[in-house]
């Protein structure tokens, strides 16, 4: 996946496999995380300064809003995407509070596919989107524009509100195979439709800029601890 990303002209590949709660999707155990990070370090030495694998995880947001790894595990990553993958039928207040707690976790970098919709498959779960976006802006948590054609979430009609509240966004392909890396095309189209400029997109940053961004985020985390 990293080599294919590089061949497409990108400067970095943010790997974000499913976490341990997503056993149905091969979610990573703590031991597998350590193994993956060793492999990423090995490949980064080979790639040199012009390309880098960024170490991430898509950590499940549990029913109470906590993330499904301990803090000492989450601290090992360059970035953490926090996402809901179950308990979709909680009421609007409970589901919103669930997201708000995850957003307030200092380890959370990005909120993934915020409303959980799958086009022509599953409706969004009930949340107060405005309240969630305001919390993302307050806690400096990036809002994902999920580029998978089944998701396209956050919907483009919310993009201007996210920008007005002060959110950064990230266009992520949700790729589970090499061909799916090209989902980026759909995410870019949705961001353009929503009026999002490149300066408000996390992964429009250069390699130097995004590594600095993640480093500052980790420094803030260390100060908070």
From TrEMBL:
Domain of life assignment: Bacteria
Transmembrane segments: none
Protein name: Histidinol phosphatase-like PHP family hydrolase
Species, as recorded: Bradyrhizobium japonicum
């Amino acid at each position: 996946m990293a080599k294919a990303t590089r061949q497409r002209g990108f400067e970095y590949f943010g790997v974000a496999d499913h976490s341990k709660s997503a056993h149905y999707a091969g979610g990573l155990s703590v031991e597998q995380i350590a193994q993956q990070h060793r492999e990423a370090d090995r490949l980064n030495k080979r790639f040199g300064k012009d390309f880098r694998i960024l170490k991430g995880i898509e950590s499940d947001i549990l029913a109470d809003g906590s993330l499904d790894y301990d803090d000492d595990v989450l601290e090992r990553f360059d970035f953490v995407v926090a996402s809901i993958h179950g308990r979709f039928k909680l009421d609007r207040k409970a589901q919103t509070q669930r997201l708000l707690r995850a957003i307030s976790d200092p380890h959370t970098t990005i909120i993934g596919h915020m409303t959980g919709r799958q086009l022509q498959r599953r409706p969004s779960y009930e949340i107060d989107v405005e309240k969630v976006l305001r919390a993302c802006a307050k806690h400096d948590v990036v809002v994902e524009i999920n580029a998978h054609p089944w998701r396209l979430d956050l919907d483009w009609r919310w993009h201007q509100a996210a920008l007005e509240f002060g959110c950064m966004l990230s266009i992520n392909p949700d790729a589970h195979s090499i061909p799916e890396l090209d989902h980026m095309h759909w995410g870019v189209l949705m961001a353009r439709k929503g009026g999002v400029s490149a300066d408000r997109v996390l992964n429009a940053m250069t390699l130097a800029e995004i590594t600095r961004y993640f480093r500052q985020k980790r420094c803030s985390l260390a100060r908070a601890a």
